[in-house]
Amino acid sequence: FQRRLDLQLCSPRHAATMPKIELQIKASLENVSELAPIPGRLWHIKTKCESCGEVSESFNTITTTETVELEGSRGTAHLDIKCKMCERHGHITIEDEALPPVSESGAWAAVAVLDCRGVAPDSFQFMNQWRAKAAGDGGGAFDDVDLTEGEWADYDEASDASVSIMDLESRFESVAAAGKGKHRKRKDAPTEAAAADGGECSVRGGNAK
Questions:
Q1: pTM recorded for the entire structure
Q2: Which of 33, 64, 195, 204 has a Cα-to-Cα distance from 114 of 20 to 30 A?
Q3: 3-state helix, strand, coil in the chain (%, to 5)
Q4: In a 10 Å sphere around its CB, with 0-12 CB exposed, 13-18 middle and 19+ buried, how is residue 143 labelled?
Q5: pLDDT tens sequence across 168-203
């Protein structure tokens, strides 16, 4: 029975019905009115095989600026990964990373939408490549905010105020659970990857970190 269930989970039919996943973050914002990822940034994500449950040892980097062709399919994805345990393939496509900026301190907000087939996102590293805007009409812009240490602080000369981003947290939620229609579609959203073949869950499309 378990073997039959595993086969169903990795079948093309099952992959085609898997929900899209939102990467959501929250943070304590001090004199910061907007926080957003830089378009085309590297997303650092660990993945979990949907077949055997194996979690990748290191973080994979995924970006919309690089795509890979899927073996045995006409589709493409931003990441193609092979499970070291069961050797099945899975892939991830970043469907949207141009969402409204995070603007409410302490509230969850989506920063990316992922289409995952055969794998599920397990954990996330913030790293660098973020943008922030200081609060107020004359608040300045910070174009390369580094959140690698889990916090960031600076001084905004335009508003004569200290600014900071603290208490960073992240989670993954299905779009259905998060509430449909809450994220804005990109006009140039990449083509949705074709369903996994189910025959295979080394990484293509991103370097392990």
A1: 0.77
A2: 33
A3: 10, 45, 50
A4: exposed
A5: 999 999 997 666 444 444 334 333 333 333 333 334
Furthest CA-CA distance within the chain: 65
Structure tokens at 67: 């795509």
β-strands 43-49, 152-156: how paired?
unpaired
- Give the list of residues 6+ apart from residue 59 with CB closer than 8 angstroms, or none: 44, 45, 46, 123, 125, 208, 209
Distance CA(43)–CA(142), nearest Å, equals 19
* C-alpha span between 157 and 141 (Å, rounded): 10
For 138, other C-beta atoms within 10 Å of its C-beta total: 10
Q: Give the DSSP letter of residue 55.
A: B
